[in-house]
Design goal:
- The chain is an alpha/beta fold and 261 residues long.
- The chain folds into two domains: 15-230, Glycoside hydrolase, family 3, N-terminal domain (TIM Barrel); 235-261.
- The chain has twelve helices and four strands; from the N terminus they run ααβαβααβααβααααα.
- Strands 1-2-3-4 form a four-stranded parallel sheet.
- The longest helix is centred in the middle third of the chain and has 17 residues, at 79-95.
Amino acid sequence: MWHAPLLLLISEKYPDDLPTEIIMRGFGSDPRRVADMSAAYLKGAHSNPGFACAAKHFPGNGQDFRDAHLSNNVNYFDVDEWDKTYGMVYRTLIDNGLDAIMGGHIMLPKYAKAINPDLKDEDMMPATLSPEIMTGLLRDRLGFNGMVVTDASHMVGMTDRMTRAEMLPRSINAGCDMFLFFNDPDEDFATMLKAYKDGVISEERMTEALTRILGLKARLGLHRKAKEDLVPQPETAEAVLGKEEFKAKCRKPSATTASRS
């Protein structure tokens, strides 16, 4: 599964202040163009057998100069503005058979409060920890029933809210089906098992998440492949990634980034 396309809109208010990762990976600031380009990307990806896409970073990056790897990140759009822009883009991809979505550590306060009027500013969470956004908006309003994975679980936009033992179960309860990256595998497994046994994560929610994960794996045919075939062997990867044509493509965006800096 490829974590793409990036359904972000480059802010027209301060485009030069956005992180390079936003500027270099987005299709632009026009929602219709972003939707069309992303749909074309998805169509091309699906032409490859056994290939899935997880569009990111829900509910929408590109409106805050801060980087969620290092700090909080906020999308300030109100309900109408979000529905006409990011909402339209995500609906387009969902209607075109989007396999999965990566939740971003991005707050969407105006929409969260529209869904839950009792929500206080001090209780505002990034989408990956927000049931208002991951369930109320993504599941209920947009009708997405595919698998949802968090962005990296070590990013400050997520980790600055609570301990990891609290954070991981909360992300599942918010509506995410998986969290990305272990800290310590045994420790994280114990955290999730304890949350399940203590009833923090309900049987219904655990079953729902596992059904989506296993359903996606089954659709990709992973259960029919031998373990050694799931990940390319080093020599196979080198034969592809080591080609000069790919190295040249890698150097080109690097040069472009340097020139912008």
